[in-house]
Amino acid sequence: MVVALGVAWILDGLEITVAGAIADTLTKPETLRLSSTAVGLLATVYLIGEVVGALFFGHLSDKLGRRNLFMLTLAVYLVGSGLTAFTLGNGAGWLGAH
Fold this sequence. Notes:
This protein has 3 helices and no strands. It is mainly alpha-helical.
């Protein structure tokens, strides 16, 4: 369990690093051409989601057990990451691209 938790933390840190590193690239014309405001909004929503998720699942782990909730959060992450494979187009329309 400790090894799985360590791997999850490493992957989460890597995901945050990659997201931060590509933020500037998302505003370029040859990529999604997002406005700086849209990139900032995405970063804000990402952070709010992490905080709310940590509070929600932290509270549930006290009720249902940390091991059970750790497995559940891994499943939620797996499903959410897998769903990104089904995105259509470049997704820029609702993000405020020019």
